[in-house]
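User: Isochorismatase-like domain-containing protein. Structure?
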Amino acid sequence: MSYDPRTTAVLALHWQVNVIKPEGFFGAMLAEPVARSGVVERAVRFHRSVRAAGVPVVFTRFTVPEGEGELVRNTGFMNAVGDAQEAFRPDAPGAQLIPEMLEPAEPDQVVDNQKLSGLAGNRLPQWLAERGIGTLLVTGVATNLTVEQTARHGTDLGFTVHTVSDCVTAATDEAHIASLANLDLATAGCLTSEQVLGLLS
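Assistant: Predicted structure:
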């Protein structure tokens, strides 16, 4: 099995200050496990390597514009971010991609939405289809939230989706491991970054 870089893309989900850094909105829940896991450094190396192989890296950001955009307050999660929406404005410090993800190259594409799935409430599925992309490699935080939601959604849209297992993490090891087990069954399966790079070479 191998993958053609011309028909493959990375979806890099929620690598934002609000999710990754202690000062971010979800910092109290996620910053410590993210730092302990080393996932940021691994994801930076992976993104750099796949870019060198010709694979585009598309970042998604959870933002809430004035008027709430397409935010639907139908879960506790969406109510919480809706109540704190000033922190999620597109130009707010917390909504920005973390600096580590901007080096050594700017993202190929940055897509904003107000959904848990990075493929919902935006034109990203059309953007991918127009470029002949059929395989998606998913990185991001948290495994059991945006990563799992996006991977399942992409699978239902007809993409072949692999979560890059060492480039995702969650608030607890238990949630992370359980989510990866779900994704092994519900998608094309999880791969390590090393396995992915082997399949692209």
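Helices lie at 17-20, 27-37, 39-52, 76-83, 124-130, 143-156, 173-186, 193-200. The two ends are 11 Å apart (CA to CA).
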